[in-house]
Structures are given as structure tokens and as C-alpha cells.
Amino acid sequence: MRVAIAEDSVLLREGLARLLGDAGLEVVASCGRAEELVRTVQSTPPDVAIVDIRLPPTHRDEGLRAALEIRAHHPAVGVLVLSQYVELGLAMKLLADSAEGVGYLLKDRIGDVQEFLTAVQRVARGGSAIDPMIVSTLLSRRRSDDLLAGLTPREAEVLELMAAGLSNQGIADKLTITVRAVEKYVSTIFDKLGLPSARSESRRVRAVLLFLRS
Amino acid sequence: MAGAALARGVSAHRVPKPLVLYAVAFLGCAAAAVSLGLALANDQLSQPALRAFFLDWVTLPYIAGGLVAWRCRPDTGFGPLLVAAGFVNFLGTFEWVTSDPWFTIGVVFDLLPPVVFLHVFLAFPGGRPERRFAGVVVAAAYVTAIGLQLARMMLGGAGHNLLELTTQPAAAQALLMIQLVGTSAVCLAGIGVLAARRRRAGRPLRRTRALLVDSFALGLVMIAVLLLAEAFGAPGVEPIRWAAFAVIGIAPVAFLVALLQARLARSAVGDLFIELRADPGPAELRNCLARALGDPSLELAYWLPQCGSWADLEGRPAELPAAGGRRTATLIEQDGAPMAALVHDRSLAQEPGLLDAVTAAARMALDNGRLHAELRARLEELAGSRARILKAAQQERQRLERDLHDGAQQRLIALSLELGRLAERLGGDPGARARLDQARGEIGRSLQELREVAHGIHPAVVSNHGLAVALESLAARAAVPVRLTVGFEGRLPEQLEVAAYYVIAESLANIGKHARATSATVDVWRANGDLVAEIADDGAGGADTERGTGLRGLADRVEALGGRLRVWSPAGQGTRVRAEIPCG
């Protein structure tokens, strides 16, 4: 699996490269600036690009713009955006068209090596990885309807993991239940929320997030 | 006080006694009657009545105009000069007398009238020729008219008179030519002086005043033509003579009209008094003064001693026009220091009486206007320094947030990453793994706290991604369901977005704490160049807008950007907070 990194802090960039290398991923480019990453992706598209949201020269939204550009022109390349703050508005910008091959995680998550690597691989394969903080913000949101109140605690757990982008297998592993059971929960949840059942896992991520945000 | 000053501007100089004026008027009438009588009594004179009529046509207006000028403008010698011109003109009458002494007097003064008219025209309005050149012209004219006339009379070239010493007709004739051509040359020089004066006057003079100068010039032209016609014996001298007399007689009439208009201007000063009593505002004061002075382009400037500079009505720095330009400033002083200045067209400078009267009348109002301008200047300065302080504080907070982000936060994340890798390598030692996980958990909590601190110092998401993006999380984390509507695209100046963000964040926090609301709306849109943010809830209302709740700080922030914050909170009807901040 080929990975490109754009991160301006040398300490983090090298740490990330070592971490990914340890796990047997091939780091094909390790850049300090956004335009460098975009060029690399154009010449030799990796499976996934990991981008810091704040990059030089202004440290405002260069990373985000690079991520959106890669998503627009290279849909086959997964984009995982890392940030020191997670913002619902930014998640919605990234997911504006689809949740396929897109991830948005708090930088802190790097330390949880296994989970982080799973997320990188998921995004590289066209899945999604949405930070749990985004999901919990959406779930904690006060709503005028009480559709969420109709879910059982187990269903709520499944909803949360589903929204974060986990596959049925991932949810099953996490909750130590069978994939069959997860599928059943998922269909019950869609019924209760009045959502049409989504075919792919990444489509359901977007459907659930949009529902929670509405 | 102002009234006294006004009166002083009009008649502080010696006003002639009425008796003197009546006596002069009587003498004038008598002179007119005498010239008529003398003309009719002379049986050698052709068309005696016509001659007498034209002579009096000039004599009477000059004496009458002179008397009016004497009474109304005693501060100048112009009135007496006009009167004198009238009587000098009358003296020519004695040429019609057959007795030698009277005839001699008449001949001596034969050429004087054109010169006196020249003197009058060039001495307007001050009673003396304004420039040295004009003075020289007048003096030269007197020498030609009197000196050469006496010489010619001695040479016997002016008919039989008492001064005749010898009879040298050729020399006398040559002298006469010199006199006539010289005097007409002097008249032409006078026309040049008048033309130069008109050009100097800048903006077209008041119409009557222009008419007056034109009538003077025309009079001089006619005199010059008449003298040249006489010198070269041109045919049709008589009609030219009558035309010249007719024109010269009109000049005092034009003068009287101009005087009347000046009187009307004074009555505008009277109107000004009445308008000032209504205590006009700074802009209206300017309009009143512009009306009174008849100069719509009038501007006011006030001297601000603290700033050591001139300012306009709104306290903005202003400059007085440089000397010699089309515009002139009339300074108004108070206690020896400048207080205000009227910046007007330079043609107004020729009416110092009117300027004095208007400034005297408006002195107190101008003083008030100056205080207003001073206040505005200070407010402007205050608003500017408030905005600067806010901007500096925001930049400092932004820098702090950046330092945290680039420093402590990055290092902690790198540390957490290294611990994670270490844990992966440890493999089978559950005790060590658990302790590493615990350490990572601590780092995670520190990062969370740091994140909150950094956001409290400066909401980087607003600066980096804009208000619309930042409001999503704010609305999602609010204590009540929030319907968020952002009605504009793109970015606005950062300070504005940050201020609006704070207003919305604080208002939503207040709703959670105080409002007992079940829902809220946040609307942000642009209207008339303003960014408008409105936060409304359906809670209890009755919010105390003066104390606490952080509203004062928000209002400061909004006002420093030239905007305003308003709060409606009637009991039982929810609370609505609205910030309007100008975008430009």
C-alpha cells in the first residue's frame, strides 16, 4: 500500500513515516508543503494521502484545499485529513459529494497505532474514517424530534461506529458480536430513523451523518 | 454685542451731518439751474438747451450718487470724490459766459471733467486708486488737463482769456493736440487698469458690480474716442460728445444699484440673525452663512488648539487654501488666537464690510461649531485607538494560538506517537503496555485541555476557514436545538468574522445558561454593506442587558469595528440579539 504524507512539523512527519513503515506501508512521498503533495499525487498517485489541515505558507487552509483538490481530480486516491481541531463544518466540506475514500481525524489519534493504521487502510480502500468526536458532537446535538431516543443502547453504539466509517466486520470485531448481528442492527437502525437502506458502507456513513446534522 | 459690531461695520466712521448733505444737494440743484440759465442766455451757442441738458445729465447723478455714497460709506473718500466730480463738470459751464473772468475759469476747467471721471473710476470703491500704477495714471491725467491747459491759455490758444500773455497759435495748437491725445492715452491706460482688476477678481463678480466696472470702462472708452475725434477733427464730433455724456452720466446710476445690492446683502445678515437664534446644527450653520454671504461654495474650518490643526465640520483634518488661489480664507479670531475660518471665493474679499458683519453675527454659533468639531475629532481619535487596541489584542491572541499549535501541541502529539510505536514493539508485556496506554491517555487529556485553551485564546477555525464553517460546531454543541442559516458566501475581513463569532458563541452560551428556551435560531447575512448576525430564542426573555452576561464586552468589540449591538428581551417573549458590523 502506497502512502504520501504532507505535514510541516518535521518531528511528526518523520514519526508518521516510521510508524507507517513499521506497519509495512510504503511511504512514497513525505512533503512539508501542500503544493508538493498535489504534484506528487499528480505524477505518481498513491493509494492514500495523509494531509495536515494547516500547512505553510499561511497555515490557514492550504491542507484542506489540497485535500479537496485531490478528491476532485483523483477520486481513486484516498485522502485522510489530520487536524488539531475537529470541526463539523470542515467534515461537511470534505463529505460534500461523497464519503468514499475520505477520512478526517484528530491528530491525537496517531498515538492509538492500531486504530490509526486501520483507518488509513480503510480510506486507502475507498472507505471512510470520521473522528469519533465529530460523531459524538452530532449524537449529543439537541434535536427537536426524538428519533434517536427510540434506539436501544446497543443500536446507538452500532450507529456511532457506523457513522465513524467502520465496516460491519470492524463493528463486529469492536463489539465482539457476529457480522450477522451487526447487519441486523444496521437495518433496524435505518428503519427506526426512517432512512432508505444504503448499499455501500461509505454511502451509509454520509447518509447517517447528514441525518444526524439535519 | 453682535449687533453693535454689525453697526460698527456699517458706520463706525464719521457720518456727515445731514445739514452738510442738504447744503451740497441744494448747491448741486442750483448749479444745474445756473448751467441751464447760462446756456440759454448765451445767444452764440448752438443748441443751448441740449448742451445744458447733457451737462446736467452728468452733473446731477454724480452729485446725487456722491451724497448717497458719502452717507452710506463714510469710511471711504469715494462719496466726496463723486460730488467733486459733479461740481467740476459744472465748472465747464462758465465757458458759456461772455465775461472774461468767468470765461477764464470755464476754460481752465475745460479738460478737467474727463480726468476727474477717470479718477473716480480708478478710485472705486476705496476712494483712492488701488495700485501705484493707477495713481500714476491719475496724476499724469491731472498734469495734462490743468498744467498743459494753463500753458496753452498763456499762449493764447484758448480764446480770449485773462491768462493770455502772447499769441502763438501754432504752438498752442500743437499743445492742444498733445493734451487731447495724451488725455485719451491716459484714459486707455485707465481701461487697462479696470480690465486687470476684473481679471483679478476671480469668480465672476456680482452682476451689478461687474456692470459698474463695465460702465466705468465704457465711459473711459467714450472719453478717449471723443478726445481723439476732437484732436483729429473727425466728422460727427457732436453725436460722439452726446453719446459720451450719456454713458458717463450712467456710471453713478450703476454705482447706486451696486450700493443697493450691498444693502440687500446686509439684510441677508439680518436674516442670518434670525436663523442663528434657532441654534442651527453645524451643517445648517454653514448653509446659513453661505446664504448670507451669497457664496454657495462657502466652507467652514475650525481651529483645534489641542491638535494644532484645522478641521472640517466633522472634525476631520482640513487645510486652508494657499494665498493667491481662487479661494481665500477669512480668519475669525478669539482672544488673539484663530478660532474659525470662512473659506470662500476670493471675490468675496472685496466686500470686507459684509464679511465683518456676518462673522460678527455668527461668532457665538461658530464657537459652538468649533466645540462640535473638536468633540467629533476626539471621538474619531478614540474610535480609531479602540479599533487599534482591539486589532493589536487579536493579533497577539492569534500569535499565542499559533505558538501553542506549532509548539506544545505538536510535541505532545509526536510524543504520543512515539509511545504508541513503543507499545507496538513491547509486544507481550501486558503491565508495561497498560502503563504506556495510561501515559498516552494522559497526553490525550492534556491535548484536549490545550485545544480548549487555544480555542479560548483565538478561534483559529474562524480565521482559517471562515465564519460559516466555524458556526456548524457551535450550533451543534448548543444547549438547545439551533436552526442555523448563513446567507452569504465567501470570506469577510477576519476581524469582522471573529467579532460575529464571539457574539454568536456568547449569545448561545447565554441561552443555555439563562433563557429556559426550547429552541433558537442563528441567522447571518449581509445587508447594505453590513454583516448582520441575529440570535433569537423562544425563552423567558427579560434578560438584563446592562449587567453581566458578557454583552457589554461584545458591544465594545462590535462598536470598535464601527458596528452596533442591540438586544431585545421583553419578558415572556424570548431574547433577540442583533449585531450589525460594517464590512468596509
Considering the chains and any ligands shown, give keywords for the structure.
heterodimer, A: 214 residues, alpha/beta, Rossmann fold, 2 domains, 10 helices, 51% helix, 14% strand, globular, B: 584 residues, alpha+beta, Rhopdopsin 7-helix transmembrane proteins, Heat Shock Protein 90, 3 domains, 10 strands, disordered N terminus
Topology:
The complex is a heterodimer of chains A (214) and B (584).
Chain A: E1 2-6, H1 10-22, E2 26-31, H2 34-43, E3 48-52, H3 62-73, E4 78-83, H4 88-94, E5 102-106, H5 113-124, E6 128-130, H6 132-140, H7 153-163, H8 168-175, H9 179-193, H10 201-213
Parallel strand pairs in A: 1-2, 1-3, 3-4, 4-5, 5-6
Chain B: H1 2-11, H2 18-41, H3 48-72, H4 78-91, H5 100-108, H6 112-123, H7 132-154, H8 169-200, H9 207-231, H10 237-277, H11 282-293, E1 299-304, E2 309-311, E3 317-318, E4 327-334, E5 337-345, H12 352-426, H13 430-457, H14 460-465, H15 467-476, E6 482-486, H16 494-515, E7 520-527, E8 530-537, H17 551-560, E9 564-568, E10 576-582
Parallel strand pairs in B: 6-7
Antiparallel strand pairs in B: 1-2, 1-5, 2-3, 4-5, 7-8, 8-10, 9-10
Helix pairs in contact in B: 1-12, 2-3, 2-4, 3-4, 3-10, 4-6, 6-7, 6-8, 6-9, 7-8, 8-9, 9-10, 10-11, 10-12, 11-12, 12-13, 15-16, 16-17
Domain module tally of chain A: 2
Instruction: Find the count of extended strands of chain B (DSSP E, 2+ residues).
Output: 10
Strand proportion of chain A: 5-15%
**For the residues shown, what is the average pLDDT of chain A?**
93
Low-confidence stretches of chain A: none
Q: Strand order of the main beta sheet of chain A, please?
A: 2-1-3-4-5-6
Order of strands across the widest beta sheet of chain B? 3-2-1-5-4
Q: What can be said about the biggest beta sheet of chain A?
A: 6 strands, parallel
Q: Could you tell me the strand content of chain B as a percent range?
A: 5-15%
Give the CATH topology of the largest domain in chain B.
Rhopdopsin 7-helix transmembrane proteins
Computed Rg of chain B: 44 Å
- What percent of residues of chain B adopt helix (DSSP H or I)? 55-70%
What percent of the residues of chain A sit in helical stretches (DSSP H or I)?
Answer: 40-55%
CATH topology of the largest domain in chain A: Rossmann fold
Number of helices of chain B: 17
Within CATH, the superfamily of the largest domain in chain A carries the name Response regulator
Query: What's the overall average pLDDT of chain B, rounded?
Result: 84
Shape type of chain A: globular
